[in-house]
Amino acid sequence: MEFCPKCGTKLVAGAVFCQHCGYKIENDSDSTTTEIEQTTSETKEPKENLNKKYAVELSRDRNKDICAVDGGEIGLLNKSIELSDGYYVCGKHFKEVFLGKTKKGDNLPTLVEFLEMLNDPSHVADYLPEEKQRKADFQAKLDKYEEDSKKAKQEKADRKAYKNAVKCPKCGSTDVVFMQNNKKAFSTGKAIGGAVLTGGIGALAGFTGKKGKNEWHCNNCGNTFKTKK
């Protein structure tokens, strides 16, 4: 407010009283805050009014076979969910408010709170906090199972590759190099070309396919040895 509403004198910034006529200046921000508080208190419906609003629903029996929302019977094929204040609702209405499932011990709303969410057009169904945690825990277990399965398959493949690979008879290492085949007119190049690299081990496996002895050198211990077909 820049001018005194009583005498029209231009006010000093932050003035509480008019320096000319002494009129008390109302703070606009205080006025706005008061209006917001009044609006909030008006829009927040008192508990007594809500109890009157849902008097019919609250008058229904706390019976697991009766849905407190519409008074309908909860059949054998429809799940009965108990709310925190002992009223029951059917699975159909529960799914309109919450996603997923609920278990004993979950923090569920009262009937009035449930009805407010059910009748709120802006309400978006979501999981209960406990159900969210259960889903997160299940996903974590599933991820671990898949990781362990991949690890087990890789270990199995490595064991098979190690079993089929050429190994040094002295130290058991697969870090071996093919040297030659003692059969006449058999070249080292052809022998290497006919070898097969194993997946996880990286050593040469298999032999040349020719009769005779193959000579190998172990890079780990320096041993030189021969293999047969």
Summary tags:
Herpes Virus-1; elongated; alpha+beta; three-stranded antiparallel sheet; 3 domains; 229 residues; 7 helices
Radius of gyration: 41 Å
Number of helices: 7
Percent range for β-strand residues: 5-15%
**Spatial order of the strands in the main sheet?**
5-8-9
Give the assembly state of these chains.
single chain
Provide the number of structural domains.
3
* Structural class by secondary-structure content: alpha+beta
Order of helices and strands: HHHEEHEHEHEHEEEE
**Second CATH tier, the architecture of the largest domain:** 2-Layer Sandwich
How much is the average pLDDT? Answer: 79
Q: Which stretches of 5+ consecutive residues score pLDDT under 50? A: 28-33, 185-211
Layout of secondary structure:
Layout: H1 28-43, H2 47-53, H3 55-58, E1 80-82, E2 88-90, H4 91-97, E3 98-99, H5 111-119, E4 126-127, H6 129-164, E5 176-181, H7 188-193, E6 196-197, E7 204-205, E8 214-218, E9 224-227
Parallel strand pairs: 3-4
Antiparallel strand pairs: 1-2, 5-8, 6-7, 8-9
InterPro entries: Zinc_ribbon_dom
Protein name: Zinc-ribbon domain-containing protein
Keywords: Coiled coil
How does this structure look, described?
With 229 residues, the protein is an alpha+beta fold. It folds into three domains: 1-44, no CATH class; 49-127, 2-Layer Sandwich (Herpes Virus-1), CATH 3.30.40; 165-227, no CATH class. The chain contains seven helices and nine strands. The strands form four sheets. The protein has a three-stranded antiparallel β-sheet with strand order 5-8-9. It has a two-stranded antiparallel ribbon with strand order 1-2. Strands 3-4 form a two-stranded parallel ribbon. Helix 5 links the parallel strand 3 and strand 4 (126-127). It is elongated, with a radius of gyration of 41 Å.
